[in-house]
Amino acid sequence: MTDSKRTRSGPGDKRHRLTVSARELLHRQGAAATTLAQVAEAAQVPPGNVYYYFKTKDDLVRAAIESWAGELRTGIESCAAQPDPPARLKALMGLWVDQRDLVARFGCPVGSLCSELDKRDDALVDDAGRLLRVVMDWAEEQFRELGRPDARECASILFGGVQGAALIANTLRDPEVMTAHVRHLEAWIDSMAQPSREGSAVR
Amino acid sequence: MTDSKRTRSGPGDKRHRLTVSARELLHRQGAAATTLAQVAEAAQVPPGNVYYYFKTKDDLVRAAIESWAGELRTGIESCAAQPDPPARLKALMGLWVDQRDLVARFGCPVGSLCSELDKRDDALVDDAGRLLRVVMDWAEEQFRELGRPDARECASILFGGVQGAALIANTLRDPEVMTAHVRHLEAWIDSMAQPSREGSAVR
Description:
The structure is a homodimer of 203-residue chains. The first copy, chain A, is mostly helical. Chain A has helices at residues 3-7, 11-29, 36-43, 47-53, 57-80, 85-98, 100-106, 109-117, 123-145, 151-172, 176-192.
């Protein structure tokens, strides 16, 4: 955040700053450990003002989810510029590989937030599910364009692979776990683009 | 827990009950949301007694990790009875598929605990890493026996796939995500046992 931005402190700007700070803190320390006071401090918003924008921590978590959904859509748009489905799917996975050092330290921001919210039994789980679907729906379209009748399953295998690699990279603090797993998934995608090979077909 | 067991309340028995209750509560609601008082109540141990066995919640989390490691070793022993590496690796994944309904509701107990502890920067992350390695070391041996020079990578891809599938199954509350992903990994293992096929080779 630059100083010039900090002086523009209209209501929308403060809300945005709180959301960005919440996103960052949720990623680094998880939702349970994050307080509204910490978010206010990181966003340089007076603690008493937070309640004007977010009544509860759950409201802030929802805003962070919505913000991640926006990030994912932006990332997907950049991948959609690739010429064909295999290149698009590889570009999608590249978004995670490019962030592998951060993933190895704090996990995938999306996946680790989902994992934490999954323990709950309220509407935030549905919000987390919608976040995953932003990626999976688009990946499914790519697999369908590749002629896969099991496009939904393929999307789940692809994104599950990325998420599982992120978890292991994070726990072992080893970014290269991401690289190796994505290389494997790339080879799987390549094998689909050559229909004569059957070895890696999803039965 | 049967009544006859509950009357045997030697120190070892209480410690065991606290550990089992902690494991269960950590799985269902995560470490942050779990209190020593809840664990004491679930274990039917007077709250004041807990401190005799576990000074802090972290001590209890460590005991739960050790207990999960024991469970994983027992599971692995049952898989080791299979005649060859592909059958053993499939039996390993079967341990998760068999629990898919529970996984879809509360996540993989091991993976979701790792994901939560990964945010920290203390010794518990190493404990979580050792837990993953119980599975990955054994899977690596199987891939080595299959003649894979990249056995470690294969183990990581296999267990990452299982963990990612567990996360997506949990977020979407859909146990069949596990089944489909494991079917895919089984096909990958089968393709290794037939070295003439190259489609799914890890480059």
